[in-house]
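2024-03-11 09:14:02 DEBUG pipeline.ingest accepted 1 chain
2024-03-11 09:14:02 DEBUG pipeline.ingest length=467
2024-03-11 09:14:03 DEBUG pipeline.predict start
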Amino acid sequence: MKIQKLILLILFGWFGLSFTTKAQPGEPIPDLKAFCSQQKGFNLLGKFDVSWSNTGFTQKEFSVIRDLGFNFVRLPLDYRTYTLAGNWDVFTESQLVNIDQAVEWGRQYKIHVCINSDWPVPHWPMLWVSNYFYGPWKSEYRSTLTIQGNFAQGAEIIVNVQQVSIESTLQVKAGTKIVLTKKFVCGPDLGTDFTKIVNTRWGYQNISNKDYAVTLAASANSLAFENVSGDWMTINSISIKQGDAVKTYSLSDNTWGRKQETYKMDANGVLKTLDGNDLLPFKDYQKTVNMANQNNIPIMVQEFGVHNQTPHKVSVAFLTDLSAFFRQNNLGWALWNLTGSFGILNSSRTDYTYESYQGYKLDRAMLDALTKSGTTNATGLKKQNLFKLYPSPAKDNLFLSAENFSGTTKIEIRDITGRLIKSIFTETIAAEITKLDVSGMNPGLYLLSATNNGKQITGKFLVEQAR
């Protein structure tokens, strides 16, 4: 089945199969930004929807695209168009032939074909930590991933290696002591280290997907992971087992060239930045929220959800963290949907025991993830009591505190029309109270925004009528 060999599975990212450069699945593109800027073309909807867009692809489409001067097509595929009805685990060979043929036409006409289809089973939490480890051959990117924390004697460190380019050496240090060194050399044979051979124009870049473990002979307050020889390698995850507790950190940022950083593991085993921020991939969401707040634009999330083919445990963990993000930013939301494959009612999941509720099958765990302040063990996020603004209504003084604000803070107060009333800079200390003078302000509703080191919080308060 050729199509299974050609589909490149990527989560939270975009990649395809580059026929203009004879790239192979798994082969990195050295400059992804430049590559993407050079692609111009069209989506072909020949297998976009099993019900209304399932006529397949034609050679003439590729011929016309080439003749018009374009070099790219994207094939958004509905998995139901090439799997057995009711069972997406069974591929229908007769339907795959047309997709295979489209790939061949891409080669023939020198058109890059992006197959946008099957994804791997998702996991959560996904940490926005680079999964690339660059060796001396990529010295401009070479760096060390360091985790600060308390690692007891007897703790087991498990590294799941994904891919190796040509050759690399994984080195793990506990404190200053080297505790693991593993060299990988790619070639035409699997040997004991690889599960798949990938031969590219740059050389062999084989897939491992195997665990490499070490048990600490002494306690340490830091772990360091580095590629000390060769080209580059990627790591799927790092697991730390201490006693009966196992924490697995999935490294999900596959941005080419991003350097590793230093993080800290808190008492709950949650990995955070050195200034205490979470590593979940919500940064783009936060930027959008901040922009809306800065411009006094009302914002809510009107469509989100997790399909019922996603493992239930992963779905609940993701929705728990996402809803915590919504609460932290005071966002309203609407789940897609109430009843059905994304909903909390009658979602037909096979890996969950439902609760009977007014004639429905209720997913109580998902409901709790959406509505309760508590969190799952996936990330150990704190309750969202990070920001306090009181009293409301205020008369002469307004008080605020923010747990994660420290240093110079810019505070702006606007009226309900968005007009700036006050703008001040003040020194704040995390969780301590800052007093603001609101005497002389007209009675009414006001919006306050506070910005500190790139973080922003907003709140509303009333000024009462003077007596």
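2024-03-11 09:14:41 DEBUG pipeline.report The chain is about 15% helix and 35% strand.
2024-03-11 09:14:41 DEBUG pipeline.predict end
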